[in-house]
Design brief:
Number of helices: 12
CATH architecture of the largest domain: 3-Layer(aba) Sandwich
Radius of gyration: 25 Å
Order of helices and strands: EEEEHHEHEEHHHHEHEHEHHH
CATH topology of the largest domain: Rossmann fold
CATH class of the largest domain: Alpha Beta
Number of domains: 3
Distance between the termini: 33 Å
Strand order of the largest sheet: 5-4-6-9-10
Shape: globular
Number of strands: 10
Largest sheet: 5 strands, parallel
CATH superfamily of the largest domain: SGNH hydrolase
Strand content: 15-25%
Length: about 325
């Protein structure tokens, strides 16, 4: 039988419909006359899905600087092409999260889901009195003009592929400059919201009990929908001058949230972000008081990578063991 020539050597990548779409089936062999030797191997690219609010998407600093991108950059030399990292999100409102979260899971089919717990329900707003509304209306008119100016300036600065209004508003790099002139950031007026909150009260978005109820409901639904390992990221800081009482509220809520979500034996891990970020709010927050600066995203990445890396390794081992058992029992 003649030996196969180098030209007869072949390699092909085939994606088969009856396999997980994340699995690449690679067939290699020598094709001779009347014979073929074929070795089949399986290369699975697993998925980490980051889900959260505008901080997860990198609003204020751009998608390249968000913590998801920084985590990916830190882990890339270790995991190579065995893992891909994607980000999705919704507004920080449980009504929006309901559809977007489970839709993202169905679309991306993650092996690990990293969910930044929504901060919006814990960020109560001030019940401003009627006499202040005309003053606020005048200010808001000017603020909208300045915001529009910031968006257009950022469009001029952006690269052509990222200069559309949609891309500029998605990244939100104009935010820090625009909010820098808000009265709530001025030394002489920055305590005004606290005084008004003490006098007129706060608009309660969700009680602790309601927050826990909704988080438990979504966690249980996720466990029914996917076998992904779950990583919950705790609440991120907000400026107390802009959101009175937020820090005390998070401090009181965190032990209960952790008790609910940190269940490693059941595939659920909780990472508390607040203490590390709240120690340096001016360094880690933008002037709008709600979104993270680049250093804040970097700090989250430093906190998450030591937790996430062992989970990726755990999932790879489980997949290998599952594959070995399937091979031993056809």
């Amino acid at each position: 039988m003649p030996r196969a020539t180098p030209a007869g050597r072949y390699r092909r990548d085939v994606v088969q419909q009856d396999f997980d779409p994340r699995t690449r089936v690679v067939a290699e062999g020598d094709r001779g006359v009347g014979q073929a030797r074929i070795r089949v191997s399986y290369h699975m690219t697993r998925t980490v899905l980051f889900f959260g609010d505008s901080n997860t998407r990198g609003y204020g600093v751009g998608r390249e600087a968000r913590f998801a991108a920084q985590i990916e950059a830190m882990l890339a030399p270790i995991v190579g092409d065995r893992w891909r990292f994607v980000a999705s999100g919704a507004t920080s409102d449980f009504r929006a999260i309901r559809d977007r979260l489970h839709g993202a899971v169905a679309k991306h089919r993650p092996n690990v889901l990293v969910w930044q717990c929504p901060t919006g329900p814990a960020a109560y707003s001030v019940n401003y009195p009627a006499w202040l509304r005309p003053i606020r209306a005048v200010y808001n008119y000017g603020f909208k003009w300045r915001k529009e100016w910031g968006i257009r300036r950022e469009q001029r600065r952006a690269t052509p592929e990222r200069s559309s209004r949609r891309d500029v508003m998605y990244d939100g790099r104009y935010v820090d400059t625009v909010y820098r002139l808000r009265p709530a950031t001025w030394p002489i007026t920055r305590h005004a919201n606290g005084w008004l909150a003490a006098r007129y009260g706060l608009h309660v978005k969700a009680t602790l009990e309601r927050y826990l109820e909704l988080m438990a409901r979504h966690r249980d639904q996720l466990r029914r929908e996917t076998d992904a390992l779950l990583v919950f990221l705790g609440l991120v800081p907000h400026n107390d001058d802009l959101y009175p009482g937020f820090g005390a509220r998070v401090t009181a809520w965190t032990p209960e949230i952790r008790r609910l979500l940190h269940q490693p034996d059941e595939g659920s891990t909780y990472v508390d972000l607040y203490p590390s970020l709240a120690d340096h709010p001016r360094r880690h927050l933008l002037h709008d008081g709600a979104h993270l600066a680049v250093s804040g995203h970097r700090r989250i990445a430093e906190l998450v990578v030591p937790v996430l890396q062992p989970l990726l390794e755990q999932r790879e081992r489980a997949d290998r063991e599952r594959s070995s058992r399937a091979g031993a029992h056809p």
